[in-house]
Design a protein that fits this description.
This protein is α+β, with helices and mostly antiparallel strands. It is 25% helix and 13% strand. It is built from three helices and three strands; from the N terminus they run αββααβ. A three-stranded mixed β-sheet has the order 1-2-3. A hairpin with a 3-residue loop joins strand 1 (90-95) and strand 2. The longest helix has 16 residues, at 120-135.
Length: 146
């Protein structure tokens, strides 16, 4: 064969590899540490922390703002384009604010249209909502009610 090394054609077996014995484990060298540091541990222990409460208090619920309303309208607009009964589409704001949560309710016959095959349409709705929320510096989640 043209550009191959001599003796290494398609039918020739590959030459045996040279076996290398595994090296024994060696501890890392202490070249970087001076003799004065031998008594101290290699890491600094953490200071004692105050015990945390069993739960983190949630901030007080606030009213839905204009950004929440815009995201709510976006979800409703996308869902109305997917379903056969667009008048039955409802979107509620479960948790307004920086980390908003929305709930989408549709006619029972349209639930399959909103969820899609293997949940792909629902995933796309959530992705579009998250992208729109990211443009205004927020996060958003979408729940689809049965």
């Amino acid at each position: 064969m043209g550009g191959d090394a001599p003796g290494h054609g398609a039918g020739d077996p590959a030459p045996p590899r040279e076996r290398v014995a595994p090296r024994p484990y060696q501890r890392p060298s202490d070249d970087l540490e001076s003799e004065d540091d031998e008594a101290q541990p290699a890491y600094a222990p953490r200071p004692a922390e105050a015990p945390r409460p069993a739960y983190a208090p949630r901030p007080a619920a606030r009213a839905a703002g204009p950004e929440d309303a815009r995201l709510q309208d976006l979800v409703a607009y996308m869902a109305r384009g997917l379903v056969d009964h667009p008048d039955d589409v409802e979107v509620d704001v479960l948790a307004p604010g920086e980390d908003a949560a929305f709930e989408l309710r549709v006619h029972p016959d349209d639930l399959g249209h909103v969820i899609g095959k293997q949940g792909r349409t629902a995933r796309s709705l959530r992705l579009a909502l998250g992208a729109a929320a990211g443009l205004i510096g927020r996060r958003a989640s979408l729940e689809i009610a049965d």
